[in-house]
Every structure is written in structure tokens, then in C-alpha cells.
Amino acid sequence: MAAFGTAAGRPLQARGGSAGFRFTLFAMLAVGVMYLDQRAHYLEQVRYVLEAAAYPIQLAVNSPPAAWAWLKESFQARAALQAENARLRARQRDLELLAMRYDALARENGELRGLRAALPPVVDHWLAAEIVNIQLNSLRQTLLINRGAANGVFAAQAVLDDKGLIGQTTHIGPWSAEVILITDPEHAVPVRVERTGLRTIAVGAGDATSLALPYLPGNADIKVGDLLVTSGLGGVFPEGYPVARVTEVHRDAVQPLAQVRAAPLAHIDTDTEVMLVWFRAGHPAAPVPNAGGGDLKSGNRDMQPQALSVKPPAQPPQTTDAPPAVPPAAAPQPGSAPATPGGER
Amino acid sequence: MIAQGRGRLIVSAFVALVLTVLPLPSWLDVLRPPFLVLAVLYWSVNAPRTGGIALGFFSGLALDVFQGPVLGEHALALALVTYIVVREHQRIRSKPEIQQALIVFAALIVYEIVLFMIDGWTGHAVTTALRWVHTLTGALIWPPAAAIFAYAAGRRS
Fold first, then answer.
1. Domain segments of chain B as ranges
2. pLDDT at res. B101
3. Which of A41, A134, A136, A166 could hold B26 in an S-S bridge, CB 3.0 to 4.6 Å?
4. Which residue of B22, B52, B56 is in closest CB contact with A61?
């Protein structure tokens, strides 16, 4: 094999040409792959397959911590479990009371807004997902979860935990999905200050415990302790979900912008489970472009029926069903439309 | 040597990949040496025919799947580094380990510069100084790592 050695007397690559040739070949390949992935998005399928191949490795890598947690759990004393059970039961009761009150409030709110019937909650259904792998450093803040396209997960889906917003999905594999956290330096959430209604954008600061609000003027009405909720702009997250609490406000007379920091409410660094959320299509508080539990592909077309049917909340399913049936059933349609509001009254 | 060397190479590269994607607390994660890059460097220096640029490319692609924002980013960086190292492998091999560690440091810097530039071009710029820390830890861990790789390669040294 060394017989093919190159001129300098170095027995280099026997097959496939010299090192320089090979490097040029692979470099061109790499640049081509990058171009296709970045600009043209031709590689979604390839990435999908690669992610499926990578998933077993990620599972294996995560198995020692998972096994440790399982061991700890199975050796817990009975008394401890009973105590925990009692605590959970008390918590459950409290939450049910809260939920009762919430229903009443939602109805009252609906009446105040002049709607004929209280809207159903914006969340259609959710799915718990386990965190398989975490990448928490200041470069990238991402999670890998064990739900993917096979479970109906789609790109740019909102991910929450029980306290607040966590992030959104980016790359979807067959059985796994990557979640970019709200604290990733590349991630920005449109938020609203709950106390004042002031809208701004919260950008990830690169560590798991803080967000930056870099676009607030020096005289903005914001103070430490203010709750930030999603504003519903941006089309990924629904309106009104808690995101973070302001921890730090610096006003410098010299600088035009205030320096504001906030701590995310979600326990991003200690969570083991997250919730994937599907929103009700056509709900006023639902994010617009991906507004679909059932028909994800027609998310953009849903904009029109939603804009038209602000009054009767029961309308969107009908209008989405209607288009194929509109030309023949033009006469029965007007007859049935007034009937529904009448029935609700 | 070459036929069974390939099996050993794949196993060591796989172990290095697992060590690279193993979840760690964030302060430790910053310090984590780039094990897979070190493995690729070791094989490129000591067995450039078995390892080499193809190994660099495919290892980089694996890294891209796990942690790259763009497919092909780590692949290009690793292919470039292995190309340099394969060209100079005889000179590097004859150096004492301390000097080898310095060369590895330089190679890791080159690797990180390529990643840095591609990150910037593709709009995923990460500008904290922390991203450079692992070049240093990688160089520091080179002497023991090289010994372990030599053992894995079936070479007594």
C-alpha cells in the first residue's frame, strides 16, 4: 500500500488521492451540505433520519442519570412516600379549588368582554415529554425531549412546564425533538408586562436563570417584581402565559435604554418533564401561524376564517369544513348560521 | 494492523462521541475537552491512513447532528484540522508530548476559529469568551488522553 507514497517520501493516502485532494473534496461536500441546510432547507429529511439514528445514543448517554433517579425512587422509604402522597393530595385539593374559581372568573371575563359564551381554554390538549438530554451552556441552551413527529409534534411548538414558558421546538425527529429554551441567546419571546400592559421582547441571556429585556427606554414603567407574560405576538406562543419575573432594573441617565433582567419562572435547570401544548384553532388567544391541533398544514389558511368569525366562537370548524360544500349548500348555510347564536341565547 | 485498527478506531471514536454528548452540569460543560476532536487528532497523527480526513469529516457530521446549528459545520472544521495534521503527522509524531499538547492547542484554536466564523455567517453567532475554554482543557488533557488512545489502539507506549 505504501507503494503509492507521494513525492515527499511520506506514505500518505494510498487510496483516494493525496491528502490535499481529499481535503478539497470533503471541504466542498461540507460547504455544500451547509448551504443546503442553511439556505435551501433541502436537508430536513436527511436531518430527520440522522436524528433518528442519533436518538439511541442520546438515550444511552442519558441512562446513568435516569437509572440513578429510578434507584433512588425505588429505595425511598414508605413513610416518605406516604408523606409525599398526603402533600400531593392537599395540593390537588387546592388546585381544584383554584380551578373552580378560575372557571367562574373565565365566565365573568367572557361576560365582561361581551361575548355570548365563555370561550373554551386556549389549550386544546397537551402531552408530557421527558427530557432526554440537556445542553445548558452559554453557547446553546437546548433540550432534547422524547416526543417527536410520531406523537404529532411540529416545529415551533410551544413548550411549557407547570410554572411557565420553557421554549419552543426546533428540529423534529421521529421520536425526539429539540427544544430551544427561552434563555438561549438566540431566542426572543414577545412579552407584556402584566401590571402595565407594556409590550417588549425578552431575549435569552445565555444562562439558565436570566432573560434580558434590551429594548426598553429609560423611562419605561417597569420595576423589580413585575410579572412578564407572553404577549401573543410573534405567532408561536399564545397570549397570557407567564414567562419571567423582573429581577433587576438599571436606569442610567446617560444611556437611552434601561437595562432590565428577569428570571424565568420555569425551572429550566431542574425540570425532568415538560409539556408540549396544542392550541385550539381559531381561538382568539391562540398563536396564528401554527394555529392548528388537527390540520397543521393549513395553519396559514386559518387566518381568514378566524378574522371573519370573531363573534360566534363555534364558527371556525364550520367555515373550515364549509369550502368544499359551499357551492351546492349555499342555501342551507345562511339558514343554519343564525340558528346557532339563537340556540346559545 | 490496519484491518483491526479500523475496528479499534471506530470504537474509540464512538466512546469519544458519547463522552462529548454526555449531559454535564453547565460549569463542567464549559470545561469539557472536545474528546472526539482529540480522538480524531490522535488517529490522524498516528495512523493517517486509517483515520485521516474522511474520519474527520464523518466525526464532524456526527457532532453536527448532536450539537451543530447547521449540518456540515463541524465536518468542515474537523476536515480542515485533520488535513493539516495528516500533512504534518510525521513531524508531530516525533515530538515529545508537551510539544504535542501545544500543537493540539493550536489545532483546537484553528478548529474553534472555523466554527466561530461559520456560526457568524449562518447567523448563530456566539460571542462569549467561554467557547474558547475547551481548547485549553483539550490541550491540557492531551498527554493522558493520547496514552489512553494508544492503549485503545493496541500500542504499548
1. 2-152
2. 92
3. A136
4. B22
